[in-house]
Amino acid sequence: MKRSLRFYLQLAFTVVVCAFLVVPVVLSIMAGVTENFFVGIKSGLTFRWVVEVWTLYNKTIFLSIGIALATLAVTLLIGIPAAYVLARRQNRYTRWIEELIVLPVAVPGLATALALILLYGQFSGFRISWTFILVGHVLFTLPFMVRSVLAVMSAIDLKTLEDAAASLGASFTQRFFHVILPNCRQGILAGALMVVTLSMGEFNITWMLHTPLTMTLPVGLADSYASMRLEIGSAYTIVFFIMIIPLLVAMQWMSEPAKVKPRFLS
Amino acid sequence: MDNNSGNPAKLNTVGIRLNACGKTFPDGTRALEPVQLEINPGETVVLLGPSGCGKTTMLRIIAGLEQPDAGGQVFFGEQDVTPLPIEQRHVGMVFQSYALFPNMSVAENIAYGLKVRGMAEVEKKQRVVEMLSMMHLESFAERRIDQLSGGQRQRVALARALAVRPRVLLLDEPLTALDAKLRESLRAEIDRLLRSLKITAVYVTHDQSEAMALGDRIAVMEKGRIAQIGSPREIYYRPATRFVADFIGSMNRVQGMVDGESLQLPSGLLRVGPRVSNEVLFRPEDVRIVSNGEAQLQAKIVSAFFLGDHTRLILDVGNEQTITAETVDRREFKPGDIVPIAVDSEAILFLE
Amino acid sequence: MKPTHRESLRHIVLLLPALTIFSAFWLLPMARLVSVGASGEMGVSAYWAVITDPRYFSSLVSTIVLSATVTFATIIISGITGMFLQRNHFFGRRFLLATLTFPLAFPGVVVGFMVILLVGRQGVVGSVTEWLFGEKLVLAYSMAGLFLGYLYFSIPRVILTIMAAAEKLDGALEEAARSLGASPWQVVRDVMIPGLKPALISSGAICFATSMGAFGTAFTLATKINVLPITIYSEFTNYANFSLAAALSIVLGLITWLALALARSMAGSTVAAAA
Ligand SMILES: Nc1ncnc2c1ncn2[C@@H]1O[C@H](COP(=O)(O)OP(=O)(O)OP(=O)(O)O)[C@@H](O)[C@H]1O
Ligand SMILES: [Mg+2]
């Protein structure tokens, strides 16, 4: 097929945009495995930066995974029941609630973090524990879980399905686990991926809430960018990439066959 | 709760009684005036009426999905089930949208009511097989719901509702989502089922031929009230109100001057018998095309529609009044022709 | 108990955990933040400081100007790229799409680092310009660097939103306009932009709000760039001026929330904030 000049101009523009996004990623991967980035590849390839990152920062990786999983557990436990009620009762109050719980995302994380510190900072046991960060992450990710589940619940006729199960003698608990949950698993899965990804990458709130003993991966990244040589920062970034790539691939894969996308992703 | 699982062969069906069951929704909509309704064990009652008249509301009150206003009571046999939620009423319900569980196969859907009752695996399997064969669904047992046609889904919904051997069967416009042909064959199937199971059934529809075909009795509803309840024949031949007369079948309405035992019209004298009124009603199929000697009226054809098995005529009887007549006469009728017609006085109805 | 009451009770119980956590850890702290904002030596007028004090006012203005410029540039760049990728199928398209989704999950700090690698002291652009002109081009540690960083995290989001909206756009409208003799530019102006308007408004608002509140990128590039989040941060940590930091962050929160609410009322659809 013959393409017009306009096509090639747009293609060139698009390639430039993509290069803008991808070139630094490639650079950071290169820098992370080069002996001396300033000298270039000819200085030789090495894993010593990655090893160094591991010895310096492995705690942050485990803490981030732990916090992400804990955040997931909490958002599942409180988010799914909330989404269910918001789907079943659509009135003024539930719309308000829906509005309210999105606020921690609409308002900069810095404000949320300051507010948490000002109110709870005095409880030093809580202040220095990882659960302080967990609270921030739950606030920030909960709306994504709720919206994602709610989107699926609104797309199916939840009430009639539940009525049908009840007419067959199912108690509420039975209805919830046999009918409601299985039919929302798309939304739950999409929400879960979203929550874990966001929690792994959260910085704005976490930076304010962390203590030297509760450093998460992004906090560690900021620390290494500020105080370590470029190669170590790059190697650390590679570690971060490796951790989020599976999540991104899973999200892509989820959004393709079934048309159920979390409303927030875009 | 499951008071008949001991004897799976027998259906323990009960009558239904509604006592002053009204329904006002929180937004103030008065969906149902306090109604009184008695349904005998094994009987099929059809709730028929125009959209919004409260049929679904009444059905949902019987099911336990909706609470009647204060003072309303629902009895299953002698038991007052008003405070019981639907899951404790032991009913079978078929929804207009079928409401089959998308996360379960056909067999799992049918087995669901048995599963939540904790029925033993062997017995459950056997019951499912029985239901599958009753609804001719044997080859679909492992299918997913989205792999079924509308008619098949409908049969699964019926099988699922019946599998628990409910005390009463409630159906809300179960055939509305299907096309006309399928609707007719499924209607026959449901009829066979209801007769053979002898289950108490409440069937909601706004399709009067469905109501006529299935109902032992029909309750015609209007604006939250039962306008008339009776056998299909009673409803059709002796409508109690103008609303019922107009809603069931079609009805001609003619006004004229009373002249002895007849009504005087520009096209002739319509004989109505000893009881006279200046307005009478009769059905299109009761208008007979007769020889000139027998003619009561000489009507002028306004339009004629050949419909295959019969011809529908729109006739001018004078004073700007038209009536509809249906005839199996094979003649070719033409607008403008004059036809001699008569109506038997037994076919004439008077309504206040 | 009546079944309907039982159901209401059940719904309340199911909402309660989420509401409790939200109230205890967001509403209450926010209320505290508001009161702390008014508790400093300036009292309630701390909330006006952002306008009356030239230091904070310039910080506010530069943040708004920067965010608006980023939003505008992002919409144009993403509009062209997104429409192109949506309408044309060619070898390598999937690869280009994949490069767009990858940065979606980057936190602000990583984006800042990307900018450093691109236009920082040891950045690739600097090396190229040094080789070409004998002079290093270093943009990273200034407003220009911040601008690039915000573009970096905004472009992927907006492109994907535009592509999703363009997919739903009725292709027949475009064909109808062309059959009526509209030029490609007229088709864009009269059919495509109006059709994409809700998506453009909502993604633009998200882009603006995110840029206003972005902290990680600025933090990585330099803590001396005069944008509001950095100002708040240094008031809080360097000067321990809690009340002013609180007041400024409330103002900032109000601005971002307002931008999103405004966009939603204009676009008539759900405008959710972004990560
Ligand atoms: N949950 C509700 N809240 C408020 N009003 C309702 C509710 N459900 C039904 N109604 C109203 O009650 C009236 C009766 O509704 P119902 O569903 O019983 O009618 P129907 O006879 O089944 O009609 P259709 O043939 O259209 O299904 C209608 O005016 C309807 O708008
Ligand atoms: Mg109805």
Structural summary, described in words:
The complex is a heterotrimer of chains A (266), B (352) and C (275). Chain A has 266 residues and is mainly α. Chain A has helices spanning 5-32, 48-88, 92-106, 109-120, 124-127, 130-155, 158-167, 172-183, 185-201, 204-209, 217-227, 230-255; strands at residues 34-36, 40-45. Chain A has 12 helices and 2 strands; from the N terminus they run H-E-E-H-H-H-H-H-H-H-H-H-H-H. A two-stranded antiparallel sheet of chain A has the order 1-2. In chain A, helix 3 (92-106) crosses helix 6 (130-155), helix 7 packs across helix 8 and helix 9 (185-201) runs antiparallel to helix 12. Chain A is globular, with a radius of gyration of 23 Å. The two termini of chain A are 32 Å apart. Chain B has a 6-stranded mixed beta sheet with strand order 6-7-8-3-9-10, sandwiched between helices. Chain B has 8 helices and 20 strands. In chain B, helix 3 (121-134) crosses helix 4. Chain C has helices at 3-37, 46-52, 54-87, 93-101, 108-119, 124-133, 143-168, 171-179, 184-213, 216-221, 228-237, 242-267. Chain A binds chain B through residues 156-157, 160-161, 163-171, 174, 178-179, 182-183, 185, and chain B through 1-2, 63, 65, 85-88, 90-93, 95, 97, 99-103, 112-113, 116-117, 160-161, 164, 170. The structure holds adenosine-5'-triphosphate and magnesium ion. Residues 25, 27, 29, 31, 49, 51-57, 206 of chain B line the site of adenosine-5'-triphosphate.
Question: Outline of this structure?
Answer:
Helix content of chain B is 24%, strand content 31%. Chain B is α+β, with helices and mostly antiparallel strands.
What's the helix and strand layout?
The complex is a heterotrimer of chains A (266), B (352) and C (275).
Chain A: H1 5-32, E1 34-36, E2 40-45, H2 48-88, H3 92-106, H4 109-120, H5 124-127, H6 130-155, H7 158-167, H8 172-183, H9 185-201, H10 204-209, H11 217-227, H12 230-255
Antiparallel strand pairs in A: 1-2
Helix pairs in contact in A: 1-12, 2-6, 2-9, 2-11, 2-12, 3-6, 6-9, 7-8, 9-12, 11-12
Chain B: E1 16-24, E2 30-39, E3 44-48, H1 55-63, E4 73-76, E5 79-80, E6 91-94, H2 106-116, H3 121-134, H4 150-163, E7 168-172, H5 180-197, E8 200-205, H6 208-214, E9 217-222, E10 225-230, H7 232-237, H8 242-247, E11 252-255, E12 257-259, E13 262-265, E14 268-271, E15 279-282, E16 287-289, E17 297-306, E18 311-318, E19 321-327, E20 338-343
Parallel strand pairs in B: 3-8, 3-9, 6-7, 7-8
Antiparallel strand pairs in B: 1-2, 1-4, 4-5, 9-10, 11-15, 12-13, 13-14, 16-20, 17-18, 17-20, 18-19
Chain C: H1 3-37, H2 46-52, H3 54-87, H4 93-101, H5 108-119, H6 124-133, H7 143-168, H8 171-179, H9 184-213, H10 216-221, H11 228-237, H12 242-267
Helix pairs in contact in C: 1-12, 2-3, 2-12, 3-7, 3-9, 5-7, 7-9, 8-9, 9-12, 11-12
Bound molecules: adenosine-5'-triphosphate and magnesium ion.
